[in-house]
């Protein structure tokens, strides 16, 4: 049986319906967390004095942008950690896995269902941040925010961090029996790649387009390996039998 994007779409639509019914996902993960991670950087941005030392300016802006990258790191990890263990708790995992649906279709559908809302939310928050910087921040601060390296890091690393968090979250979800424990573990496991981005955002590592693209290529390779590892771990017979 060949890979079918139609079956992948069916999984995506089912997941999005489940999100709407799950208040924790809808309210906390998709609303409260993004609002928190946009309020904090806006406060950082608007409290920077008009005349500030370069080191202070870089640190405050780097910290502001780092808050925004927490959205693609944390939001999808909570969603992905729910994918398998959540289906098991609802009693819907076995019926799904006994259909002709391929394991790859199941995993890709679950991953896209976590990735699509994450990117919409993350880029929407980023747009709000940049609009606020352009309208309200002091000209010197606004100019620093719109530096090419800062914009490039945000645009490139947002989907890559999200992909890492999704594969880690799904891997954890296949091995856990409790949704909350899976989500907590998934959030912690999603943070390590963010450390490198943080070092660039805070200018501990001098950011440049070449460095950012090199690290992005490395993270993309890790994401691909993560997908293969999760596909290898996904054992339908074991999951249907209820074994972890």
Oligomer: single chain
Span between termini: 27 Å
Indicate the low-confidence ranges by residue numbers: none
Task: Give the topology string: H per helix, E per strand.
Answer: HHHHHHHHHHHH
How many E-type strands? Answer: 0
| 3D shape | elongated
Please count the helical segments.
Answer: 12
Considering DSSP H and I runs of 4 or more, what fraction of the residues is helical? over 70%
Structural class by secondary-structure content: mainly alpha
Mean pLDDT: 83
* Rounded radius of gyration (Å): 19 Å
Overall description:
The chain is an all-alpha fold. The protein has 12 helices and no strands. The longest helix is centred in the middle third of the chain and has 33 residues, at 103-135. It is elongated and about 65 Å long.
Note the topology.
Layout: H1 5-21, H2 23-46, H3 54-80, H4 83-90, H5 93-97, H6 103-135, H7 139-145, H8 148-175, H9 179-189, H10 192-201, H11 209-233, H12 236-240
Helix pairs in contact: 1-6, 2-3, 2-6, 3-6, 3-8, 3-9, 3-10, 4-8, 6-8, 8-9, 8-10, 8-11
Protein traits:
244 residues, mainly alpha, 12 helices, 0% strand
In short:
With 244 residues, the protein is mostly helical. The protein has helices at 5-21, 23-46, 54-80, 83-90, 93-97, 103-135, 139-145, 148-175, 179-189, 192-201, 209-233, 236-240. It contains twelve helices and no strands.
